[in-house]
Design goal:
Helix content: 25-40%
Distance between the termini: 95 Å
Number of helices: 13
Strand content: 15-25%
Order of helices and strands: HHHEEHHEHEHEEEHHEHEHEHEEH
Length: about 325
């Protein structure tokens, strides 16, 4: 008795040949449908006969007729091919995301550099559109290995600003913003605007957020270093949203995007002044990994982040700098 091969050795194409030959009841017509030659189909039919232990097609008058065993295989073969198409077709595999009915958990790592209203606005939008979803916010800090966490699926999205975002990640630009300085209402830069030179700026005491990578400079100091310059960073703060309060009570200088600074003018005794050092615009991105690139929920989340950032960028009136 011949030992039948294990089913794991039967490839999907052979199942397709089986289904086509039985349905067409002809080797030549099956070859046309499969876009191959009759000798190839004949060889595959011989292999199928050996695998099933059944002739499958037998002579009947001038043509061929399927055996009872072959007819019994037709429906299972069709079902297997249909399920395989669903398994390997990307559009079928990724079911449409329905935010109103979803109980998904969104894991977001973000800095608060963009705008003090950004994260609250994003949470409000997610809560309204996807009321059954959970949102986990992770602080983006030097100790937070966001590249590894994106790769392992511990977070779905990272939002922040980089001079050069990591090349292995997908990115979406959210906005760019002019780099300005935020100072207290009585700061010398406001009293003597003509003396507010690049050297005077570098000599001031500055407050800076903790860099996003351990032991390295932030984007402002990274740019200054590339120009062969350095400023006096007197205070480094991990909580960026508290820095305007520090600025309001000292002569510290905060250098960051205008949109962030504008939220505090009129709320605290602070003013925006131009930065006498030429910085490139500050670019904010959302970053994600290939593993979630095509996922419906992740794509929807990225759209919400993009829309909230756009609304904030056009919504607030721009506060002009005093010096220059």
């Amino acid at each position: 008795m011949t030992q039948r091969p294990s089913s794991i050795n039967i490839d999907l194409h052979l199942v397709r040949v089986l289904h086509t030959v039985i349905a067409e009841r002809s080797v030549s017509r099956a070859a046309l449908r499969l876009r191959t030659t009759q000798p190839v189909v004949s060889a595959q039919l011989r292999r199928l006969r050996a695998l099933t232990g059944d002739p499958l097609l037998v002579r009947s008058g001038a043509g061929l007729a399927p055996t009872d065993a072959a007819l019994g295989m037709l429906e299972p073969a069709e079902r297997l091919l249909r399920e395989a198409d669903a398994l390997f077709a990307p559009k079928a595999r990724l079911a449409p995301f329905s935010p109103a009915r979803s109980a998904v958990t969104f894991r977001i790592a973000a800095s608060d550099y963009l705008d003090p209203l950004f994260l609250p606005g994003l949470v409000a939008r997610l809560n309204e559109s996807a009321p059954g979803a959970q949102v986990e916010m992770h602080p983006l800090s030097a100790e937070f290995d966001y590249r590894r966490k994106l790769a392992t699926g511990e977070v779905d999205l990272v939002i922040g600003n980089w001079l050069e975002p990591p090349e292995e990640l997908h990115l979406g630009r959210l906005m760019t913003d002019e780099v300005v300085c935020l100072v207290a209402a009585g700061h010398p830069a406001l009293r003597q605007p003509r003396a507010w030179t690049a050297q005077r700026y570098l000599d001031c005491e500055h407050v800076a957020p903790t860099a996003l990578h351990m032991g390295g400079p932030g984007v402002i100091d990274e740019h200054l270093r590339a120009r062969g310059q350095a400023r006096r960073v007197a205070v480094q703060a991990a909580h960026f949203s508290l820095i305007p309060l520090m600025v309001a009570r000292t002569h510290l200088v905060l250098t960051t995007g205008r949109q962030f600074c504008a939220r505090y003018v009129g709320v605290l005794p602070v003013e925006i002044v131009r930065c006498p050092v030429a910085f490139p615009p500050m670019a904010y991105y959302q970053l994600w990994h290939e593993r979630t690139h095509a996922a419906g929920a992740a794509k929807w989340l990225r759209e919400q982040v993009r829309d909230v950032a756009r609304e904030l960028a056009v919504g607030p009136a721009r506060t002009k700098g005093r010096a220059g």
